[in-house]
Amino acid sequence: MSGDGGREIWVTGAGGYLGHEFVKTCAREGVSSRLLGRDQGIDLSRPFDLDERFEGLFSSPAEDRIVFHLAAMSRWEDCEREPDTAARVNAEATGALAAAIRRFGGRLVYVSTDLVFDGEHAPYDEESDPRPASIYGRTKRLGEVSVLAEPRNLVIRLPLLFGPSFDGKRGAGDSILARIRNGEPVVLFRDEWRTPLHVARAAEMVLAEGLDPGTKGIRHLPGPERLSRLELGLRLIREAGLDDSLVEEGSRLDMPGVPRPRDCSLSTLYPPPGS
């Protein structure tokens, strides 16, 4: 993969975990991208203000425009605590962006989540029925529905992401490794399974899938293995050369609030890009 073929590439969420890696990947692959963020007047928590902003940014029709929508309110706890904000950011703002793309032309590539599933019927492929159990999952699913109303668009569901982040605070392993280095105990769930994917690989695959106009509808990008949170954490700790004696086994059912899904492992009906 090299270059963007003259296409107009836009990116939301460039300041986030995946977004930061995605912009780096674009630069490495020679893909020129423009940002859609607060500096451009895009506040996803105010979706009804977005129409005017998009009209100014997408000033002329462009069928070769591709918008990679990576921004989201993604922290489980934040979404449960502020469901109205989660709905505005994840669902309503996505609908406004989808409407703008429909009006001005182009294609929307929307990054969604394995947490649109209930965790009781894994593994889940692209034809599985979404039944989200959380505010985060429900609002992301509503965003999917808006995106999928246009046949040329693409929804990419990602699993739990891991790998170092730019600020050391974003990935599935960052907080675990930081606590271990500080000599603090870490509780890891033995009864929550995912198909984790390294963030750098996720960025590469999202870019490849999004740039392919023949890839439409829904795509899953699972990692290579089904792992519990405990198994993943222990692996990351040991790979970092740290002592795992501070790890304590726990259960997702011991956490307050809505229980996290048991098993949201993804599978796919399609070969991964580059295979």
Number of helices: 8
Radius of gyration: 19 Å
Q: Kindly report the name of the CATH homologous superfamily of the domain at 8-163 and 196-224.
A: NAD(P)-binding Rossmann-like Domain
Give, in order, the helices and strands. EHEHEHHEHEEHEEEHEEHE
Question: Low-confidence parts lasting 5 or more residues at pLDDT below 50?
Answer: none
Task: Kindly provide the name of the CATH class of the domain at 8-163 and 196-224.
Answer: Alpha Beta
Mean pLDDT: 93
Query: Which class best fits the helix and strand makeup?
Result: alpha/beta
For the termini, the CA-CA separation is: 13 Å
How would you sum up the major sheet?
6 strands, parallel
Question: What fraction strand?
Answer: 15-25%
Topology:
Blueprint lengths: L7 E5 L4 H12 L5 E3 L13 H8 L7 E5 L6 H6 L1 H22 L2 E7 L21 H14 L5 E5 L2 E2 L11 H8 L4 E4 L3 E2 L2 E2 H13 L5 E4 L6 E2 H11 L7 E4 L25
Parallel strand pairs: 1-2, 1-3, 3-4, 4-5, 5-10, 6-9, 7-12
Antiparallel strand pairs: 8-11
Helix pairs in contact: 1-7, 2-4, 4-5
